[in-house]
Design brief:
By secondary structure, the protein is mainly α. Helices cover about 80% and strands about 0% of the residues. It contains 4 helices and no strands.
Length: about 140
């Protein structure tokens, strides 16, 4: 396979998206809510974990693919993909954790920070290569 890191990252993101989609549909059946969130925390958590992953995964996979096509170093790129996937998993789990009012669940917060770090690294690395290879 030409882009194994990208392919594996995309496949794992797809598994996570499918899992969160199934959880959202199950919560919709449980609450009998075809639209909206029925003010049900389980449905809100399921729906947001799916939506948030769908918002973040595509661009990250594109960045990983561009870096891999530019022959970026294999192990650091793999580590970056693992960081992103771990952060997304933490975010999904964290959205379902109980928490007090006004305080985010710890795994959710860890997932957000991990995602931002992975994004910042992928963006910086991509821009670095654009400037140094094409500049």
């Amino acid at each position: 396979m030409t882009l194994p890191i990208t392919a594996l990252t995309a496949a794992i993101c797809a598994i996570m998206l499918l899992t969160t989609a199934i959880a959202t549909v199950a919560a919709r059946f449980r609450t009998q809510a075809s639209f909206g969130d029925a003010d049900d925390q389980g449905l809100i958590s399921s729906s947001r974990s799916h939506g948030n992953l769908a918002e973040h995964a595509p661009l990250f996979v594109i960045l990983i693919g561009l870096l891999e096509m530019a022959n970026a170093s294999h192990w650091p790129l793999t580590a970056l993909a693992v960081l992103f996937l771990g952060a997304r998993a933490a975010h999904i789990i964290g959205l379902h954790q109980p928490h007090g009012p006004g305080e985010p669940p710890k795994l959710r917060a860890l997932g957000v920070v991990g995602t931002w770090i992975a994004y910042a690294a992928a963006i910086g690395w991509t821009l670095f290569l654009v400037v140094t290879v094409n500049g």
